[in-house]
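Translate sequence into structure tokens.
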Amino acid sequence: MLAAHSFIKVAAVTDHDSVRGCRATVELASAYPDILVIPGVEISTEQGDVVVLGTYELPPKPWTPEVVSDFAKSVGGVSIVAHPFRMYGMGERARNYKVDAIEVLNGGSSQTANDEAKEFAKSLNLPGTAGSDAHQVSELFSVFNQVNASLDVDSILKAIKQGSVLAQVNRGSIHF
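Result follows.
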């Protein structure tokens, strides 16, 4: 899918509570030198979902926002509060956790929920990211991040932490 796209050259694989597909997906993408797949996972906590980018492993249990964000830091990854103002989002509770970013543009969230997330990230002085939240091929690339970084995982994760990321809606058409 990425090989056919003109400007999206990086994707993160973040299955819910599983990293089983990460290695295989990264390996498949390695045949394309101008494409990068970032391994990760979306962890379901009782307080809300947290995405961890930059890992092939699951955090230790119990899965709480603290445990997940501490795990992300310990592996050099990035922790992102997913869709904070939608179902399974932690909303205002995210203020209580030391995460790296807030998902401010979610492909499966309403405009109102995304707007609320943007204002929330600003209030916390945290970077805002985009996530397609794709569960089907047709949902891929609805939103994307413009990241000012080299085409390698560490550079991209560092750029996100530093706020060198711009969440955007894809207004063009994508053909598969």
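Note: The beta strands are 10-13, 36-45, 48-53, 78-81, 101-106, 128-131, 143-147, 165-169.
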